[in-house]
Amino acid sequence: MKNDKSTVGGQRSITVLGATGSIGDSTMDLVRGGGERYRVEALTAHSNVEALAKLSREFNVRFAAIADPTRLGELKDALSGTGIECGAGESAIIEAAARPADWLMAAVSGAAGLKPALAAADRGATIALANKECLVCAGDLFMQRAVRGGACILPADSEHNALFQALSSGNRDELTRVIITASGGPFRTWSAADIEQATLEQALKHPNWSMGQKITIDSASMMNKGLEVIEAAYLFALEPDQIDVLVHPQSIVHGLVEFSDRSVVAQLGAPDMRTPIAHCLGWPDRISGPAERLDLAKIGQLTFEAPDFTRFPGLRLAFEALRTGHGATTVFNAANEVAVAAFIAKKIRFGAIARLVEATLEQWARAGNLAPLESADEAIAVDHSARNLAATLLPQIAAKAS
Ligand code: NDP
Ligand code: MG
């Protein structure tokens, strides 16, 4: 691979955090396709010992880490005789991230991915960042740590990867606006009353993308797009007014960048996460990707709509939290994680997800808790407190009719 400073002897070492998830699966598929080009240093999972052990054996990894500390014995048994080192608990996931590897995929779901991603940033890794919650939680503090550590952050989220690709068409100071697209999710055409009552099964039926459970629910509420607006602001140092959301049900155009001369540059591709991940894996070169070729004649029509901030209040709340700053996006993310877990556990209705997030943000501000965050540790502390606050507010939100 030409121009690739992180390739030694033609082989690149890889670590995948969240290897057993949807992004992990797509990443391992690409690594598998690359054959001898890659060597896997470490893989991690939360509790799925079976899948982690299977991948660890297949790729003959050096270190396998499971976040659930009670599963260490099982993992050791599953890998006995292989010589693969095993670890368990949060510290083992952080160790996996800290071990030397040329390229790391950060694909843990939720803010739980922040500390490991920071460990990778501190050692100056090349990080393909899928875990958007970690950016939303720690804002530009994460980006500052990455700069200090000499890390290279490559956006793996499809919209941000599209922006990253389109941005190379101009200079940063010539950028006037970015547009991230949204499929609109399964409830795009539903009334507010129907969205309020949507079931878990309905929320898990995404029209275009196959993804993990949490992000699929976030897509149905459009909280995912809210998280992505915040993610774009921190990744590319943008003001809230420079970020627009456009509903595009076909999910073919992923992101667009407008420059000062009013040229708009877009990135297109089939809705398959292996394309943005392949871009990150090959960067600064291009590798061959396994996604379906784009056949625009077959697709026929690409359509676009303005987002509806009333039926999807999560999107409004994300812009408000971004404008508020001072830890509000950390609170937004923490409350949403609590709300989604409560919805999955059937403790609240779908419509109550945004209400819990709004109530947590309001209560947080009313209590005078908004303050500039000075460090990633402070962001983690705010994340914990905001989760506790959301859990306290949960029963009254659950009891209240819409
Ligand atoms: P999944 O739920 O499919 O996978 C999550 C992975 O993280 C699994 O390996 C899981 O292990 C592990 N994990 C979960 N919780 C913890 C924890 N507390 N500590 C350590 N590991 C943990 O999620 P996705 O792959 O869908 O998403 C991962 C991230 O990528 C999210 O931040 C999401 O927003 C982002 N993303 C996902 C996209 C997609 O298409 N799926 C697109 C763009 C971004 P186990 O299997 O054992 O539970
Ligand atoms: Mg996305």
Give a description of the structure:
The chain is α/β, with parallel strands linked by helices and 402 residues long. It has a domain of 145 residues: Rossmann fold, CATH 3.40.50. The protein contains 17 helices and 11 strands. A 7-stranded parallel β-sheet has the order 4-3-2-1-5-6-7, with helices on both faces. It has a 4-stranded mixed β-sheet with strand order 9-8-10-11, with helices on one face. β2, α2 and β3 form a beta-alpha-beta unit. α15 packs antiparallel against α16. It is globular and about 55 Å long. It starts with 11 loop residues before the first strand and ends with a helix. Bound molecules: NADPH dihydro-nicotinamide-adenine-dinucleotide phosphate and magnesium ion. The site of NADPH dihydro-nicotinamide-adenine-dinucleotide phosphate has 30 residues, from α1, β2, α6 and α10. NADPH dihydro-nicotinamide-adenine-dinucleotide phosphate binds next to α1, β2, α6 and α10.
CATH homology superfamily name of the domain at 12-156: NAD(P)-binding Rossmann-like Domain
CATH class of the domain at 12-156: Alpha Beta
Poorly predicted residue ranges? 1-6
What structural class do you assign from the helix and strand content?
alpha/beta
Bound molecules: NADPH dihydro-nicotinamide-adenine-dinucleotide phosphate, magnesium ion
> What overall form do the CA principal axes indicate?
globular
CATH architecture label name of the domain at 12-156? 3-Layer(aba) Sandwich
What is the CATH topology classification name of the domain at 12-156?
Rossmann fold
Strand element count: 11
Radius of gyration: 21 Å
Helix content: 40-55%
